[in-house]
Each structure stands twice: as structure tokens, then as C-alpha cells.
Amino acid sequence: MTICAAWIRKINKCEELLFVSDSRLSGGRNLDYSPKVITLARSDCAIAFAGETDMAYPLMHQISLAIASYNRSKTRAMDVRELKTHSVKVLNSMASSILSDIPAMMNPDVSFIFGGYSWIHKRFDIWAIKYDAVQKKFIARPVKRWVGGMDPMIFGGDKAKEANAKLVDVMRKKGRLVGNQTEGSSFDMEPFEVVRDMLRSSTQADSIGGAPQVVKVYQHMNALPLGVFWPDKASGKVYIQGRPLLGYESTDFWVLDPDTFYSENINH
Description:
By secondary structure, the protein is an alpha+beta fold. 23% of the residues lie in helices and 34% in strands. It contains five helices and 17 strands. Strands 1, 2, 8, 9, 12, 13, 14, 15, 16 and 17 form a ten-stranded mixed β-sheet that branches. A five-stranded antiparallel β-sheet has the order 3-4-5-6-7, with helices on one face. α1 packs across α3 (80-95).
């Protein structure tokens, strides 16, 4: 299972869209090096999943292939909002091809968080995409503002409710949430803090685990993963999208300190 999140972060006069997830695939065995947040075949958006891996991976891959096969989409002339609509149609086309003698297996138990930068509307958008078993199709819903009018953010996965409660605690401790009123309208790295702490306390028996993986979408319409020092910078170990770099590997991606939130280029 999964804990994942997406939110809009403001830095001075700029904004960025962040995705974060755990890295564990489970089901009788654990694989803690699994990418759950991926950039797509264009550079202004990303997608994260929660649920059945055997459904999620082919669905996400077909979305990426659909983007890559059409120049208007690949070059971002198609705005991210139009791309969202097209992506849902691709998902529903895939879902309609499912065949099983077991009725419960006909409904894909998977959900997605999709988001990116709209060059038409000059803003970031985030959608939760879930399969509706009654309507027999995937439906995308815009992510709403968080408590007290904060910018949109969402947790996904089986630990979403727990994570949201922890985020409330974090915001209260920082004095940024009093009652239902918030100070300011934007998050910094608080959702990441929640996921980080949940992963640091996870065990082999938990449904989530591994290193946090981070993808940023910038207003200059580039989406890039960040490496993460894990479990902390002192360890010197760098993980990228869930996998630790091998001893001889380097990376051009910037690497995040999970405690100070500063990132650096370790090649320089």
C-alpha cells in the first residue's frame, strides 16, 4: 500500500508543485526500492499512485506512451487541464478491457494523484483520480483547499487519513493552525515532514516503508525528481525515487536533506 501526497509550495514570489511518496511495494514480500511518483513524457506534470501495482504500472505507462505519441501533447501545446481529460479517457479505455471470472476483480483498486502547471491559467492544478465502481469508470476531481483556506494539498493511499491527522498536529505545533484558522495560505514542507516521520517509524510489518521519494514541478514547466539523503544526511546515503545509489553512481539531480530541507548538487 502507500502514503503519497501532493501540494503547492510558495517560495518568495514563486510556486512549485511537490509530490512525495513512500517506496514500498508489499503483498507477501516487501520491495522498498519501488518508484511510485513518476514524471511523464512531457516536463510540466507528474503522477503518483496508490493501490494495486499490477494495475497502476500499466495504466501510468500507457498515459506516458499516449503523451509521447502525439506531438501537441509531448511539446506541451496541449495544456495540462486538457491532458488530464485525455489521461482519464486513456485510463477508462484500459479499464474497459479488464476481464475476470471474479466480479470483484473487474474493478481496478487503484487511485492516482495527477498534477502540473497550466500555461493557459497560469497556475498549478492537482486532481485525485479514482475508479467509481458504480459508474464503472475513473473520475478526476480537483483537489480542494486544505483546512482554513490553505492552498490545495492531498494525501493518498491507505495511510491518508492518519497522515492528514498528523499534518493537523504539525500545523498546530507550528502555530499555523488555530482552531480552523490558518496563518498564511501556503504550505512549506509540512506534508513532507509527515511522510518522513511516518517512514522513519515504519517497520517491516507496515504497509509503507523505504525512503521518501520526491518530484518537483516548477513554474518554468520542468518536472524533476530530487534525491533524498536517507535516513538522514549524516548517513551519506542518497536515494532517488526509492532506490539507493550504488557506490560508483553519481547523479545530476539535486539531493534533499530531509531535516533542513536544503538541497544540493553533490557533484559540485
